[in-house]
Design brief:
Elements: E1 2-6, H1 13-22, E2 26-31, E3 44-47, E4 64-67, H2 73-83, E5 89-95, H3 100-105, H4 147-155, E6 162-167, E7 169-171, H5 180-187, E8 192-196, H6 197-200, E9 206-208, H7 209-221, E10 229-231, H8 240-251, E11 256-260, H9 284-290, H10 298-309
Parallel strand pairs: 1-2, 1-4, 2-3, 4-5, 5-6, 6-10, 7-9, 8-11
Helix pairs in contact: 1-7, 2-4, 5-8, 8-10
C-alpha cells in the first residue's frame, strides 16, 4: 500500500512512519522542513508547502493520505480540494478539544459537567477558536485553529473517505513538557510539592507518543475505518495527582505532595481552568473495532517521560 504522510516529523509521526514501513508499505513523508526525523532510507522524503503540494508526490497516487497538521478550516478545505478523487482515502488527526467539556473547562461555555467517559458522539463545543487568546499574532495558525471546523469539512464530503482520530494529550520527545513544573522539583529532590487541589482531582486522558502513533497505523491500514471518528488514548484515566505519583515513583522521588487551594499558590502558578470538567475519553471503539492497544508498557512510558525531563 502507498501511504502519503503530510507532516509526521515530530512527536507521533516518526513512530507511525517507521511502523508503516516495517509492515511493508511504501511511505512518502511530505513536510515543510521545520523538523527533521530519522527514517529508513526507503522512505521518500519531500519538502514543500501543504497548501500547494507538488504533483510529484502524487505519482503514483497514494492509497492513503494521512494529514497530521490540519489545524484550520482553510487547511481542511485545501486538503480535500487537492486529494479528493486522487487518494483512495484519508486519515486526519483531530483532538479531544472538540468536546463541549473542553469549552467548559476553558470557561468559554457554561453548564454542569458532561458525563464521562466522553464517547465519540458526546456533545461538541459551541464556542470556536479555543486558542485564539494564545496566538502570538494575527497571522499565526492558533488564531484560526479549530478542529471542529476541520472535522466538519473532511466528513461532509464523500470523494475522499476519511477516518478522524481524536488525539489525547500526548507525552513524548518533542511535546511541550506539560509536566515540567512538577517533574523538575522531583528531579532536584524537593521534599514537598504543593499541588492546586482542584487540578489534583481533575482527569484528562493522555497517551504516550509511540502508543498514539499506533492508531495512525491501524486507521491507515484498515479501509473500514473510513467515515468514522475514533477517540485515542489510555484505557483508564487517573486523576492528575495519581499521575504525578506515578511519575514520582518512576523518578525515584521520596518527597510528598500537599494539596492546597489555588489562593495559597503564587499567582503565576495558579491554574485558571474550571477543573470540575473532566476530559476523559471513551476509547472502546478504536480498541474493539481496530484492535488498538498500547505498544509500550505503562511503566516504560513513565520512565521515558521522566528521562526526557531529566
Amino acid at each position: 500500500m502507498r501511504v502519503l504522510m503530510l507532516g509526521g516529523t515530530s512527536l507521533t509521526g516518526p513512530y507511525a512512519v517507521r511502523r508503516l514501513h516495517a509492515l511493508g508499505h511504501e511511505v512518502t513523508v511530505f513536510h515543510r522542513g521545520d523538523h527533521e526525523a530519522e527514517f529508513p532510507p526507503e522512505v521518500r522524503h519531500v519538502h514543500g508547502d501543504f497548501s500547494d503540494p507538488p504533483s510529484a508526490i502524487l505519482d503514483p497516487a497514494p492509497d492513503v493520505v494521512v494529514h497530521m497538521w490540519a489545524m484550520t478550516q482553510k487547511d481542511a478545505e485545501s486538503f480535500v480540494r487537492r486529494f479528493r478523487g486522487v487518494a483512495g482515502r484519508a486519515v486526519v488527526i483531530s483532538s479531544g478539544d472538540v468536546y463541549r467539556a473542553y469549552g467548559k473547562l476553558q470557561r468559554r461555555e457554561t453548564g454542569p459537567p458532561d458525563a464521562v467517559p466522553l464517547a465519540e458522539d458526546a456533545p461538541l463545543r459551541e464556542s470556536r477558536y479555543p486558542y485564539r487568546d494564545k496566538a502570538p499574532g494575527a497571522d499565526h495558525w492558533m488564531e484560526r485553529y479549530d478542529k471542529i471546523l476541520v472535522e466538519r469539512i473532511v466528513m461532509r464530503q464523500r470523494d475522499l473517505p476519511a477516518a478522524i482520530l481524536r488525539f489525547p494529550a500526548v507525552l513524548g520527545s518533542g511535546e511541550h513538557r506539560r509536566f515540567q513544573r512538577w517533574l523538575q522539583p522531583m528531579l532536584r529532590g524537593a521534599a514537598e510539592l504543593r499541588i492546586q487541589d482542584s487540578w489534583a482531582a481533575w482527569r484528562w486522558t493522555h497517551g504516550f507518543a509511540e502508543d498514539v502513533a499506533e492508531s495512525i497505523v491501524l486507521a491507515a491500514t484498515n479501509p473500514g475505518a473510513a467515515g468514522l471518528v475514533y477517540n485515542v488514548g489510555e484505557r483508564e484515566t487517573p486523576a492528575m495527582i495519581e499521575r504525578l505519583e506515578e511519575f514520582g515513583r518512576a523518578a525515584g522521588w521520596q518527597g510528598r505532595m500537599v494539596r492546597v487551594p489555588a489562593s495559597e499558590l503564587p499567582e503565576a502558578e495558579r491554574l485558571p481552568h474550571d477543573f470540575s470538567h473532566d476530559i476523559v475519553y471513551d476509547t472502546r471503539r478504536i480498541r474493539e473495532e481496530l484492535g488498538y492497544k498500547e505498544v509500550v508498557p505503562r511503566e516504560e512510558s513513565l520512565r521515558r517521560t521522566v528521562d526526557l525531563e531529566r
